[in-house]
């Protein structure tokens, strides 16, 4: 039997390591803990007389109401702490003896056997058996450490514990039934039951998938952190590794997806769906929290935040897979008041996962961070603390690393399974009963401490507003169009396509909503949607007030949690702000005096309190608030965490290799192309250039102009709209434009502003100077050459770009060539022929005219010497048409009828060079480019 | 009260220490949670998020499945003319599980394994669903004959109802 051999082998090793060194270390522990215990019991005495009043922690009115009885109970209770602590010491000293005394350990197993003989459900595994179990475990740890065969050892460990479990419960779970019964006597003499171990391994293989991955992650990151971690942490980790069989680890990795596929079909709007959502949220919060606490485990944890429970473990018991820990509640003194310490008893429930991490043992100090829940049960003298996912052991009662394992294992008691013969009483519910579950949110409203966005948001449950001020830096201020009556869907605003909408959009008030992208000192981003702007032109003012400043978020509500996948554009902006310019704070490490934005912190402190930025965040929160929700703090100047938009030249932008990124630049808009006549309702295509692209000899081959699309989701101020409507070229600053697949886009978070062409013009440049840093005045800022240089039309022309072209007319599109009259005064085409005369009347300018202007449209096909095998169709401008047709008039009498033109005369004419806008490019079956002549 | 008993670890080699049993707290916690849910639901016709989260915390993965059963109104209370009652829960697979009114038992494998064998859960999802449906008043009512009831309670007609 190979397995037998293995077991034997590992036991041999244990024998080798049995003697002195271990024993002495055990004795050390005994001594040390005795000192500790006396100290802690003295502490508990001190606390007895204190009152309950100063506690902001448990919001439960019931517990406050029953205060007198609680205090009355304190005296006997703390007395029992003392005795129990002393007992533990005795115990430990005893272990030291028994470890070297084989006879005694035999006796121990006698007791075990007796207990096994008892009916399985009656069996109560008690503490006496524990020290030895843990001792042998400690030995195993040592042996596996040295013989380099940890995997094998783990395996044998596992199977043994499985067998033990079977023996204990008289139920065969695994398939090695006969073998185990054969070996039973042998095992029981050598090694007592290791109940604890069984639980852990069972837990790993049994629990649900998603939480499994969390654990995996934390294990993995723990390994990575190895060098930094204390020895006791290492042992905890090693213990977890040793107790986790390899095969179930594999399974664990697979399960989440499987179960996710299988299970995630809940009735929409149902309770299960809701819980599932809550669960996911909680899971991510826990994983985030754990990730951060693992990132710096040695850090002392902050307890200054409201709602943190500081607990001393008195006694641990296990029930239905959960650990119930009786704790004494240490109320930390509030800031400045040293005396208000007090204690009370609570019963804390830890789920298996948390318990496996904490390994609570008597006299440990555990911090539980909000949100947690408190449940008062009628007839119970103490409150029950539930939902303790954010727990951390800050003090282990036993210091030496190798023995923390032993201590952890001896601590949990196990009781009889609960009585199934009676159902829970529901009917007893009277209407006078109060609902006694209360959730302590991450923080209470009155707090002054700086919390992270994540704490504030995850802590509030789902109900309502974040009742706490969160200090953040406003990274960006922008506005988004408000789609009709649906403020929630602003993330993906659709351009309202009302055909008869007023084209003059700026006149419509309240159509854009102010948004800020904020980041807290821990790196979490959130978008806060604020009030509707009464006027779009207020945006620069808010930029000036908030952007780059440290602000307090107040009275915000959570709208949505968005992920990178769901909102790629937003995350491209976040990515452009990542990694942060200053080191981020570690949440496990906040202190009262800490200000995440304080840049004059000594560098030593910074190295201790900050952590590496890591990968860019994968989620952020969408919050909503009022105008008053963002309140700049008194701190002058810009926050060091603020990363201003870095101005680039268009040449930099074009030559960047990055796939999606945000760019800010100042450029001259040469040409605008609106999809619809009403600017701002649909897309607007702009052709941009800047001096870097217009240099006579470009350093690198580069296009002279760039196409940029202003999406409908990008809110435009009235001055920008005005500039876009006017035919003249204008200079604009573009903040946070996206480059997606080589195309520049202005989207939700982009901000356009009109710059003055002349730098001295203060009227227009004030807002720009505020929102874009001085670096925007690029070194190569010269005026553009006149006329602007354009790329000659080439084979790789893209739609919406500008080019220059010249060629010979080889064809005329006669079907689209036509002319029409237009008002000679105002250019309107809305003319009426006055009855009885040949005069025209313009409906627009209400004037009559003899001879209206004639407007013409003519599309010609050009042959370009540099482009062979390519059809070029160019829609010509009036003046070019005129010059082309000038010679083509077949008959030009003064007669009333327009005589028409002769196509033959047009063909062969040379045109150009023309500035043209590329409308369409079709590459199949043959290259066909549709262009439109433009006037720059 | 409970912490006044230091679980008898003083005389660790004496057999009588086994008799010192710890009190069970989880059933009381569960009971209180159900009462809270019932109370809140009677008043507001809603279950707040924190109660759901508490359910999840106490009952683990079971809670989600049980709530799904509640959503699907899978719990039926069968009453016979003789006055006997039993619950029937229609599982996700369509199988019917008969559970008793007065005690905790469910014929499902999860109950046998998690509750009975390993003592790692208070209830299975079916029993939990019964409690939740009772608390929310969402239990379907159905009358059956005495004969059928006796067959059900006798365990011979569990499947074909």
Shape of chain B: globular
Beta-strand content bin of chain B = 5-15%
Question: What is the radius of gyration of chain B computed over CA atoms, rounded to a whole number of angstroms?
Answer: 19 Å
Using DSSP, what is the number of strands of chain A? 36
Percentage of helical residues of chain B? Answer: 40-55%
Fraction of residues in H or I helices of chain A? 25-40%
Taken as a percent bin, the fraction of beta residues of chain A is: 15-25%
Identify the strand order in the major beta sheet of chain B.
3-2-1-4
Q: Residue ranges of chain A: pLDDT <50 for 5 or more in a row?
A: 1-136, 138-229, 244-262, 333-342, 400-411, 442-449, 485-510, 588-609, 759-781
Query: Tell me about the biggest sheet of chain A?
Result: 9 strands, mixed
State the separation between the terminal residues of chain A, measured CA to CA: 90 Å
Q: Mean pLDDT across all residues of chain A, rounded?
A: 65
Specify the structural class of chain B.
Answer: alpha+beta
- Main sheet of chain B? 4 strands, mixed
CATH topology name of the domain at 453-482 and 511-581 and 617-644 in chain A, in short, is OB fold (Dihydrolipoamide Acetyltransferase, E2P)
Number of helices of chain A: 25
Helices and strands of chain B, in order, run as HHHEEEHHEH
Put simply, the count of helices of chain B is 6
What is the largest interface, and how many residues per chain? A-B, 92 and 73 residues
CATH class of the domain at 453-482 and 511-581 and 617-644 in chain A: Mainly Beta
Keywords (chain B): Metal-binding, Zinc, Zinc-finger
Organism (chain B): Betta splendens (Siamese fighting fish)
Domain SWIM-type (chain B): 97-135
GO molecular function, one term (chain B): zinc ion binding
